[in-house]
Amino acid sequence: MKPRTSGSVVRLAAPLKALAQRFSFLLLVLASVALMMVGKVDAVLVDSVRARVTDAFAPIMDALSRPAATAAHFVESIVALENVYEENQRLKAENARLLQWKQAATRLEAENGSLRALLHYKPEPTASSITARVIAAPGGSFLRTVVVTAGRRDGVRKGQAAIGGAGMVGRVVEVGEWSARVLLITDINTRVPVVLESSRARAVLAGDNSDQPRLLYLPADAVIAVGERVVTSGHGGLFPPGIPVGVVTAVGERGVKVQPIADLSRLEHLRLVDFGLPGVQDEMDQRTLK
């Protein structure tokens, strides 16, 4: 009995399947037209149905996307581990080089200390500094000066070096209780003993109220090259040696011109440094200001 029943079902289903295959395309077209008509008549209903369908398929889409996201995360982890390994190897090599430099520096420091002890070398005093803001650049008799917001109450004294950025700007020439005046290296009254860093030729940096001061009293056999750095020589006891001042920009019949390292036209903050040196006497400062 059971085989006959199954055979009857198959015989009845076969014509229905063939009919469905024949009219499936037409049914799909009619269903699409019906959906379009419903969307035109009742857009709210269609939006509601679309939202419900989206909500129904959202968990399925999320589940399907997880393997891809997991695979992408795994690949990113492998790349990150490779980068960390390379960075670790580079840091190890750099650390080894730094250890070599540390050993060399320790050896040189011990040797330097031994030589200083043999020569009874007197170390330079420790420098102290005060940072102040530039508030004015008045004219008058001070053609190239600036005023800063630090004075006697802050420890500012005459003769202190004024440093802006990477280079020397000038020196303190007048100190009040709450402010101080700095004479720039471009002022016509400025004279700074300097030395050229490469040729070691000594000279005096003299301001002329232009943007580039000149070098005076150079040796006759001095060979000066454009681009050579100019630093303080330490002569006169006003500034210690080695403070960057400027760079040679021109060598000719009109003399040697120096471009200050610091941009004197855009001074906002200055560091007033006390190197603990005797400096100049107040009488010399008074004559400079006259």
State the helical fraction: 40-55%
Rg, alpha carbons: 42 Å
CATH topology (fold) name of the domain at 128-289: Thrombin, subunit H
- Write the CATH homologous superfamily of the domain at 128-289: Rod shape-determining protein MreC, domain 1
CATH architecture of the domain at 128-289: Beta Barrel
Shape: elongated
Mean pLDDT: 79
- CATH class (first level) name of the domain at 128-289: Mainly Beta
Instruction: Work out the strand percent.
Output: 15-25%
Major β-sheet annotation? 6 strands, antiparallel, barrel
Structural class: alpha+beta
Spatial order of the strands forming the largest sheet: 1-2-5-4-3-12
- Total helix count? 3
> How many individual β-strands?
12
- The H-and-E topology, N to C, reads as HHEEEEEEEEEEEEH
| Low-confidence sequence ranges | 279-290
Q: What distance separates the N and C termini?
A: 134 Å
Detailed description of the structure:
By secondary structure, this protein is of the alpha+beta class. The protein has a domain at 128-289: Rod shape-determining protein MreC, domain 1 (Thrombin, subunit H). It is built from three helices and twelve strands; from the N terminus they run ααββββββββββββα.
What attributes characterize this protein structure?
290 residues, alpha+beta, Thrombin, subunit H, six-stranded antiparallel β-barrel, 3 helices, 12 strands
